[in-house]
Specification:
single chain; alpha/beta; 3-stranded parallel β-sheet; 6 helices
């Protein structure tokens, strides 16, 4: 007899990547997709994959339950083997472009919420251990951030890099880097209540990232 009791899936919910309007992303959010749009097809594949997992649970009533963790942008300490700048993953490479001054202006922003990489790791452990986590979906996020806040953190904590860090804001944002007209956020209350999650703040997350890559050489 199988001893499997729980399966955990990490899934990037497309509703966490909404445009810059005031949207509250709840645990029950599902994103509509347009099969004719390549980006929507990419997001749709994620949505359909998660729906297939829940359909399997409903149709087969297995002896195990299912937990889905939905993180947004994941930043923080680059702990994996990274021999050079060229081997950074996409999100880390985008941060390094700011730290090193490769980016000459603060870039346009599409994702407004983040999670520290150590927090999503902790969430996986807690999702296995927490009795009430079964058959639930959790948004794993510390809250909102802006691309301006990336530059601000690097300038504040890394003076040797500061002269090259971009400060010019893109069009369509206010002085703090938030979209004019409002921005969305995400409801992480279920993760705090059921999993007991506590989240690291954005500034500390940026410091952890920069400390971990400051000594990397070009590829």
């Amino acid at each position: 007899m199988s001893t499997l009791r729980r399966i955990g899936i990490q899934y990037v919910n497309p509703s966490l990547f909404s445009s810059g309007t005031k949207i509250i992303c709840l645990q029950i959010s599902w994103e509509a997709t347009n099969a004719g749009d390549p980006i929507d097809a990419y997001y749709g594949a994620k949505t359909w994959a998660e729906r297939a997992a829940w359909d399997f649970m409903k149709e087969n009533s297995p002896q195990f339950d299912l937990v889905v963790l939905c993180p947004p942008m994941i930043y923080g300490d680059v702990a994996q083997y990274t021999p050079s700048i060229g081997s950074l993953n996409t999100s880390s490479a985008s941060l390094y472009a700011v730290l090193s001054g490769q980016d000459k202006e603060i870039s346009q922003q599409h994702v407004m919420i983040f999670c520290n990489v150590a927090d999503i790791g902790r969430a996986h452990v807690l999702a296995v251990e927490a009795q009430d986590a079964g058959n639930q979906r959790f948004i794993i996020t510390a809250g909102t951030f802006t691309h301006k806040a990336i530059s601000d953190a690097f300038i504040k904590h890394f003076p040797s890099f500061a002269p090259n860090v971009p400060t010019k804001l893109p069009e369509g944002v206010d002085e703090n880097g938030y979209p004019i007209g409002g921005n969305y956020t995400a409801d992480n209350s279920l993760s705090k209540k059921v999993l007991g999650m506590q989240y690291q703040n954005f500034e500390d997350t940026m410091v952890q990232f920069a400390n971990s890559v400051a000594g990397l050489q070009s590829s």
